[in-house]
Amino acid sequence: MQIPRQAMLLRIFIGEDDRDNGRPLYESIVLKAREMHLAGATVLRGGMGFGHSSRLHTTKILRLSEDLPLVVEIVDSEDKINAFLPVLETIMSSGLVTLEKVQVLQYGSAAR
């Protein structure tokens, strides 16, 4: 699989407790991206953050970890990312979705 040098980065900010039909939302997003043959997806967990509600989510010791922030990043061609957006809309009820143009320098192993 190839990604064009000029690609798009889809970044999805959600919470660890967000769900899609009982399944963790981040899992649904990654599995759907894989099903649609996107180049790859990565889920990153944040140690602290807040969103629309301004409620602070943190991993501090004195508080139980509650609904930690997650970021799902997907990089692929603009066409493939644009085809994924309507699907994303059907499984997300809240969160923040951003897009930005990126330059892909390497994808996969270098030819030897």
From TrEMBL:
This is DUF190 domain-containing protein. It comes from Mesorhizobium qingshengii. Belongs to the UPF0166 family. PANTHER family: UPF0166 PROTEIN TM_0021 (PTHR35983). It comes from the Bacteria.
